[in-house]
Fold:
Amino acid sequence: MSTNTRVTRSSNKDTHPGAPDIDEEVLSRPIPKPRRTKVQIAADNAAAAEKKSAKAEEVKLNNEKRTQLIKRIATLENQMHDDEQQGEREAARPPAKKRIVLVEQPPSKCMNTHLFKHA
Structure:
């Protein structure tokens, strides 16, 4: 068959008409945005990269501030610990009581010899 003489079968003539039916659902759909050009894509990519680098700088500054804050807190905690230990060392305490040490004394001579019976 040649391309000029196409014939549609009679059973198929109403199956795929040229103009589709348009209903309410089709009309209520939003109109799609046109595709972006290469220039627009490059500009969007450059803006996204700049935004990402700015965010990275902000995160870096926040991390540095956080590190400095942690170091300051650690210094204060060490100072508080040292002050507490110094306070304990210099606290006013009553004098220590003398310990009574019981030393075993050698037995004294007993004058009561009648108490001891020698066998």
